[in-house]
Write a structure and sequence with these properties.
Blueprint lengths: L1 E6 L3 E7 L5 E8 L4 H19 L8 E6 L2 E2 L5 E5 L4 E5 H9 L3 E5 H13 L4 E7 L3 E7 L2 E2 L30 H5 L1 H8 L6 H10 L3 H25 L3 E5 L7 H15 L3 H5 L2 H4 E3 L6 H10 L14
Length: 310
């Protein structure tokens, strides 16, 4: 039995994965702030998950953790998880002695990519495109994360697709993230609401011209990311996940429409059938927690230096 956890800035999602790959238990907890609170959140989640599933501690073979920040490949040391108040934290040293099993960690988007790959069917090459506060992708080929030479494979959020587009916090204009990131949409919308992206889509449905333009820009940015992923890696599928995908078809439909519109003038682009390659994870999908469980059970690799992500 493998346990996997997705440690987010507000909540922690934990799943128990049976030997056949099926999720047999799931719990959620509020994530604490700071290193000690994060460790306590994970430990309490593991204990609760064991209780809910009736799993004995000696039946748990590994614990995998998906977490924001920089994680050296094959380790459980996270750096610069600013949304959790963590500068550096060795989760293996903190949790391994407590539970007596291997503990490994991975950046949360890469963990979600592994989970999305498994949920897609676990074959071929899949890109997971995370639509959240920021935009980033994870690439999985034959079950393994494709990191690139410097670990930046999939960092599509800061590809500029319009030099005259909106300013991105990275300093460029027209980045994919500037068009489609939840943080950027909230800043450009400029209204104080609990769910600014949903508010933009609701206002667009009601005919608000500014919101319609922002929604169109969002679709343009996501469609651009999908084109980049297909044209550079020729993935079998692009799986969309992240908080914004809670809007489900309200997100997918304009993106597919934009892909079809932009391909109308090109027989080559039409032949790629981009719209058919896009899939949306079900709302509330535990992709990152599932991926973390699978990563936690993987063979360790030589430690590498952690790398920054946008």
């Amino acid at each position: 039995m493998r346990f996997g956890l997705d440690v987010g800035g507000t909540k922690t999602d934990a799943v128990a994965v049976a030997p056949d790959g099926m999720i047999v238990g799931r719990v959620r907890r509020t994530t604490g702030w700071g290193p000690d609170a994060v460790v306590a959140t994970i430990a309490d989640s593991v204990r609760e998950l064991a209780e809910v599933t009736g799993v004995r501690p000696d039946d748990v073979t590994s614990i995998g953790i998906g977490i924001p920040g920089q994680v050296a490949e094959g380790t459980a040391t996270v750096h610069h998880a600013v949304n959790l108040g963590v500068e550096r934290l060795d989760l293996s040293a903190a949790l391994g002695p407590v539970f007596g099993v291997p503990v490994r960690a991975e950046n949360d988007v890469k963990a979600a990519a592994v989970g999305g790959y498994a949920m897609h069917g676990g074959t071929g090459t899949v890109a997971y495109l995370n639509l959240g506060t920021g935009i980033a992708a994870g690439l999985v080929r034959d079950g393994r994360i494709w990191r690139g030479v410097h670990g930046t494979a999939g960092e599509v959020g800061h590809i500029s697709v319009d030099p005259h587009g909106p300013l991105c916090p990275c300093g460029q204009h027209g980045c994919i993230e500037a068009f489609s990131g939840g943080g950027s949409l909230a800043r450009r919308w400029g209204r104080s609401t609990a769910l600014p992206v949903r508010d933009v889509f609701d206002a667009a449905d009601a005919g608000d011209a500014e919101a319609i333009a922002l929604r169109a820009g969002f679709a343009y940015g996501v469609a651009s990311a999908i084109r980049v992923l297909v044209l550079t890696v020729d993935v079998d599928a692009v799986v969309l996940g992240g908080g914004i995908t809670a809007l489900a078809d309200r997100v997918l439909t304009p993106v597919v429409t934009e892909l079809e519109r932009s391909a109308a003038a090109s027989a080559f682009m039409r032949s790629l059938r981009l719209g058919d390659r896009v899939q949306l994870l079900p709302p509330g999908s535990p992709a990152a927690a599932l991926g973390a469980a699978l990563i936690g059970d993987a063979d360790p690799v030589e430690e590498r230096e952690p790398l920054a992500h946008g």
